[in-house]
Specification:
The complex is a heterotrimer of chains A (about 150), B (about 325) and C (about 350). Chain A has helices spanning about 25-35, 55-65, 85-100, 120-135, 145-150; strands at about 15-20, 40-45, 70-75, 110-115. Chain A has about 150 residues and is α/β, with parallel strands linked by helices. Chain A has one domain (about 15-145): 3-Layer(aba) Sandwich (Rossmann fold). Chain A has a four-stranded parallel β-sheet with strand order 2-1-3-4, with helices on both faces. In chain A, helix 3 links the parallel strand 3 (about 70-75) and strand 4 (about 110-115). In chain A, helix 1 (about 25-35) packs across helix 4. The longest helix of chain B has 15 residues, at about 5-15. By secondary structure, chain B is α/β, with parallel strands linked by helices. In chain B, strand 3, helix 3 and strand 4 (about 100-105) form a beta-alpha-beta unit. Chain B has twelve helices and eight strands. Chain B starts with a helix and ends in a 7-residue tail after the last helix. Chain C has an eight-stranded mixed β-sheet with strand order 3-2-6-7-8-9-1-10. Chain C has two domains: about 1-55 and about 80-205, no CATH class; about 210-260 and about 270-340, no CATH class. The chains are: A alpha/beta (about 150), B alpha/beta (about 325), C alpha+beta (about 350). Chains in contact: A-B, A-C, B-C. Chains A and B meet through helix 2, helix 3 and strand 4 of A and helix 6, helix 7, helix 9, helix 11 and helix 12 of B.
Chain lengths: ~150, ~325, ~350
Amino acid sequence: MQSVTETKNEFVPTIVAFCCNWCSYAGADLAGSSRLSYPANVKIIRVPCSCRVNPMFVLKAFQQGADGVILCGCHPGDCHYVTGNYYTRRRMSLLFGFLNYLGIEKDRTRVEWVSAAEGAKFSAVMNDFAKRINELGENKRLKDLRVKENGHE
Amino acid sequence: MNKTEEQIVKRAAELLDNKEVDKVIGWKKGEFCFDPSPAAFTSSDELKDFVYNDFCGANLSKYLVNECKSGGKIAVFLKPCDTYSFNELVKEHRVNKEKVKVIGVECHGKLDIEKIKSKGIAAVTGAEESGGKVAVTSLYGNAELDKNEVLLDKCLTCKGKKFAVADEIIVLNEMEETKNDRFSGVEALEKMSEEERFAFWKAELSKCIRCNACRNVCPACTCNKCVFDNNASGVATKAPADTFEEQMFHIIRAFHVAGRCTDCGECSRVCPQHIPLHLLNRKFIKDINRLYGEFQAGETDEGKNPLIEYRESDAEPSSAVNGEVRHA
Amino acid sequence: MLKFKIDKLNELFDTISAETPLAMPLEKAGEADYGRYEKGAKPALGVLKTVKSPKDLFFPQSETLMKFKTEGKNLAVEAPDENVTPFVLFGVKACDYKAFEVLDRVFLADPVDTYYQSKRNAATIVTLACSKPEESCFCKVFGIDAAAPLGDVTTWMDETYLYWQANTNKGESLTEKVRALAEEGGEDAVAKQQKATREIIDKLPFSHLDLSYFKENGTKEIFDRPEWKELSEACLACGTCTFVCPTCQCFDIREFRSAKNEVIRYRCWDSCMYSDFTQMAGGNNRTTQMQRYRQRFMHKLVYYPENNGGLFSCVGCGRCVNKCPQKLNIVKVAKALGGKKHD
């Protein structure tokens, strides 16, 4: 898969990926050590568990210029803390539905379950998400204009 | 003085005189009939200023959070919809049930003075409801309005006549059965395109002046220090410096009360800019009902709210957001 | 005196705004607030009270004071341009105009607040007389005549005409720009409207509010009144009253840092109703809502007049009367404290 960063003089989205320490972050590690590429504009933020992600984190990311936010955690049932990601699932279902209700494009947000053994999946998910965000273009609806003024334009 | 008010004052006086309670929380007369304020009464002499009329829309349950911190027993008058807020506060250990005597009072829908004025009637000096009509007197002349046109928004989606909790009730005239299609507003928005929805909310939310009235009146907003007041949080703001901050404030606030919001409608009642804030909360309520089963916050004072619960079979976010999935 | 046909008003606004920015009450999502007029905007001149007062134009709710940017070891400081383009502020009511005097005494006193001053000087103010005051109005108490507001230009409006009277040189030069659209006359219609308005104002329930108590008694006496506790009991500690008030002038200074390491220092309205209003390194000297509530009214009715030759910092616009979620307001305070003498 072609990386979106390779095309020059074009819009390069900023993507924030919250990855749980136990599964998805390890999955990203495995992707790296397996020489599987994922776009360089995906900024990974490691969190102890996907349920550590407060809705505020998602909004802050958008405020400061993210064009897409993706949350990755252990598969339901495999949470290191037993039940954390079940709560994540409910919260993010509601939050992302709510953002869409406010008119934010629903593809700008995503939840994926990626285990420590799924390096290939991690790479595929990130490439796919980056491709979609690239199609959507710059996030203009959920962003602080003060950042945009001095942002990447 | 109407019969119900008479009965309420009589009961309040008894409770205070017999020392059954130390304080009564109710409403106090204002300068007109349409501007009563919530108030606490500690002796039966003070009750001469007590009022219970068609403009007592304020939900008194949140005052109990502070009142319960001092000693003594408190009696509070709650309308049917207010009792849900009370239950929710008890459930969250914000109000000590043992200290409070809940007296349910009858309600036939409360009136909105701003709606009356928006009918072009200025310098209102009085308003009286009877038989579905509201007779308004003003310095520019009198008018008769249809009651349904000047009800508070929250009363248009009345929860009904059931008291979720009450130690005793004062109901002299039977309350009406009500129809409640409270999700129609949310559905209308859901049917719009993303662009239209964004335009709608941008126009509404950019009116916000961050007065915090919605938050401070909300019976579900009882944090000792709100994240938006906490300078260490990094998101504390006092005024909108950018429209993003309105989105942020209202998204976080709606999310924080999701699953706990009883849909009492106080947020929309108090908004000086008339932002339809209830449409934010109702989206969460609607989605929770759809995905995790019907839930009414404040129906009981125990049990778990949907956001601190889960099932292994819960919908995946990807399909939940698309609105495809329904609770089995 | 000049007069403009009502159906020519949009032409009038288009003419003014073609040359200079024009701010006036506009309808937005169902509410009226002051905003920049552009072709196709919906003027809301019939609205008696905008939600926010026009103080927003001189003292915006949020205003950038300066910006800092770091690049390597260099720190660049950027001050905002203080050369404000002259603009016209249209439709200001008598009470809101009087409020500018209250604000001027704060912001234009030494040391001058240049951010305020530059915008204040850039404005040509066109006032609009009230013709249908409502029960929450009490400007008469402060000696304001709602039927004859001041300003660079005074206007009156009825069903057929907008009447126009220039009062100052600034007003005259604005008049020259729009004279082509106008006709002469209108004195009689204005006099008639003024008479009717004044009659109604005389009958308004708060028009004869007695504030002498606040002038005749010492600060400490008023400060210590036991009624404050009861008066403030239902206060939610929201900032509605302060943010809709045309004379409230408190602000906070904050900073916003973007991910690109740029810092924006801005000021924004603050409210004495908020718990952290008096938060300092050493603690907070107002710890209860009663103290905060008392502060607001003491400032309006006692502290400000003491420092400004008896001028109250309330103009009787009645916005707080309408907008307080729990219907607490300055009239109730004045009546509760001033109605009976403390013994």
